[in-house]
Amino acid sequence: MRPVLIFRHDACEGPGYLGDFLDANQIPYTIIRIDAGMPVPSSADGAAGFVFMGGPMSVNDDLPWIQEELALIRSAHYKGLPVLGHCLGGQLISKALGGVVTRNPVKVIGWFPLECAGTTPKTAWLRNLAFATECFHWHGETFSLPAGAQPLFQSRFCRNQGFVIGHSLALQFHVEMQAHMVREWLDYYRDELLASSQSVQSPEAMLDDIDQRITALHGFADIVYSEWVKGLDRTH
Fold this sequence. Notes:
By secondary structure, the chain is α/β, with parallel strands linked by helices.
């Protein structure tokens, strides 16, 4: 089958557990390393789907590749190709499809549970999820819902945590995390952790029970990713 293209915007924010999931399901993928200067494809042709990872930049920054990715997301979405975004990637999907990205009332960093956002638990994206699961968050901005989008997730500190529109799934949180990634981010982004608060956990709190939290997060990710890959065309 054609590969899924995964866009990496920072060296420490790669596909993580998503790569393991795709490998386990024999779904080929190619990483487009934007942080290393790789170009954004000019066309959505030749890919089974598109995944956009996180990064420390804002979708509102004046970076040429942001406009190119927004155009690619629109093209893929209107062709019915599956698109998936994590954090910055979810914000890119929102902006590409008519939403806006603004500063969240508070910065959200650490392990916090999600809630179902006004949709019936029978919805395919939600029915098997355990909402007691703590998911990992690291963001200071938030997206609005594009017209026609179905909200999926919300949380105490951020109203919009995820939506689906067609085959495009936007997540504000990080379901792709692995234990070594959490430790790496705590060092790489340590300047953002100068003061803890209700919505910003200390490094010690984020590392508490890390293995159990990651195991639960991967169970959550398996359900979300399994639903998303149903939209992939595996015949080509």
